[in-house]
Design goal:
The longest helix has 14 residues, at 91-104. The chain has one domain: Winged helix-like DNA-binding domain superfamily/Winged helix DNA-binding domain (Arc Repressor Mutant, subunit A, Orthogonal Bundle). The chain has helices at 11-19, 22-34, 39-43, 51-63, 85-88, 91-104, 111-119, 121-133; strands at residues 67-72, 75-83. With 150 residues, the protein is mostly helical. The chain has a two-stranded antiparallel ribbon with strand order 1-2. The protein contains eight helices and two strands, in the order H-H-H-H-E-E-H-H-H-H.
């Protein structure tokens, strides 16, 4: 959305216009904590995103400067997505959403993991930033299993 089309100049409203839909936040989550990088990775993430919506959100997040597309070194036909500095700055936001959701709703996130993250917020965010900086695709969080109770 262009700056002239914004509903208001409220920082919350502007932020939600840029990344506030569930698909955009899930793409950012997958880049930040699950180590996913490609269109196919996102498609197979288990969230059930339609290909047209995925393509649209990747384009919007790129236009907003939250992610960037890079050609894969070994195959220029493949595109890898990566958070920008603006994108990795969403780490505290995503962490708080994760903690809030696990505390107030039934989720597959293990309680002990959520408690650890809540007690060590700064370290979790620092590790997310380190992995981003070092291009380390090792998942920050395990894939949660259905049936677990957070």
């Amino acid at each position: 959305m262009s700056k002239s089309q914004r509903r208001s100049l409220c920082p919350v409203s502007i932020s939600l216009e840029l990344f506030g839909d569930r698909w955009s936040l899930l793409i950012v989550r997958d880049l930040m904590v699950r180590g996913l990088r490609t269109f196919k990775d996102f498609q197979q993430s288990g969230e059930g995103i339609a290909t047209n919506i995925l393509a649209d959100r990747l384009e919007k997040l790129t236009a907003a400067g939250i992610i960037e597309a890079e050609e894969e070194e070994s195959d220029a036909r493949r595109v890898n997505y990566r958070l920008t500095e603006k994108g990795i700055d969403l780490a505290p936001v995503l962490l708080e959403i994760l903690i809030w959701g696990a505390r107030h709703e039934k989720t597959a996130a293990p309680c002990a993991l959520i408690d650890h993250m809540a007690e060590n917020r700064a370290q979790v965010i620092a590790e997310a930033r380190r992995r981003w900086r070092d291009r380390d695709q090792t998942p920050l969080l395990p894939k949660f299993k259905k049936g677990a109770r957070g």
